[in-house]
Amino acid sequence: MSLQELIGQSTTLTVARKATFGYFLTDGNEDVLLHINQADQEFQEEDQVEVFLYVDSEGRISASTTIPEIAVGRYGWVKVTDTNPKIGVFLNIGLPKDILLGIDDLPTHKSVWPKPGDLVYITLKLSRNYLLYAKLASDPIIESISVKATRENFNKNVQGHIYRTAKVGSWIYTIEGFKGFIHESQRPQEPRLGEMVEGRIIDIKEDGTVNISLLARKEESQDQDAERIYEYLLSRDGSMPFSDKSMPEEIQERFNLSKGAFKRALGKLMKEGKAYQEGSWTYVKKD
């Protein structure tokens, strides 16, 4: 197998000769440069060295003693370092040159592209001209590393990274190793690919995969809604032309809440003695 065919993988080569700028390594047929900046120690001629082969910025096959967790055919979680709206996002796998996850492998809407710091589960692939690119893990790959959830996990809070996203929902791999789905109705907004999110398990399927909701639990949601309404009241000097008799359309437009959620939140404020209603208006209750 030629060195070209080993790009994106690790292999053991022999130090053929030293130079001021590094070492020339050989497989017996071809030589490749291990630059001194990519060597983790000093070597002597005839030493056996495990290296990772990649193509440098000038298109030459190069070696590094840094062995990335991922390789061609080997998957791992990799951090996003930068984005370019025209071509895709860049990932750090430990080499001098970041790896591109191309636009064709990313969601259609750039608003859900990964941001720097997000994690994606990828492998490496070689282009026709032997350049390295990132390739996202498919559903079967995620399934192969996942574990099955049990009924004991129902309603538990979980965290995980989004590994696929679409209009109908988002797919997540949790810290526990569960493979999950978040229906579009169970997310306040569409999370980014690679984003870490937190939710709770709302269903466990026969195959051990889970359905997850990113929405606040009912009591948490009610607290948040009540706080938002109270802040709006305060911003209007303690009064607003909304009450439990307001039209659903008006409530939706002003607060982005259903009338039922609005009434529950308003009822909480009144029960706590923070607000009261008169006619079609609501007021802050002052001491």
From TrEMBL:
Gene3D superfamilies xref list: Nucleic acid-binding proteins (2.40.50.140), Winged helix-like DNA-binding domain superfamily/Winged helix DNA-binding domain (1.10.10.10)
InterPro entries reported in the protein's UniProt record: CvfB_fam, CvfB_S1_2nd, CvfB_S1_3rd, CvfB_S1_st, CvfB_WH, NA-bd_OB-fold, S1_domain, WH-like_DNA-bd_sf
Highest taxon listed in the record's lineage: Bacteria
Pfam families in UniProt: CvfB_1st, CvfB_2nd, S1_2, WHD_CvfB
Positions of the S1 motif domain: 155-217
GO molecular function: nucleic acid binding
PROSITE patterns membership: S1
Similarity section: Belongs to the CvfB family.
Full protein name: S1-like domain-containing RNA-binding protein
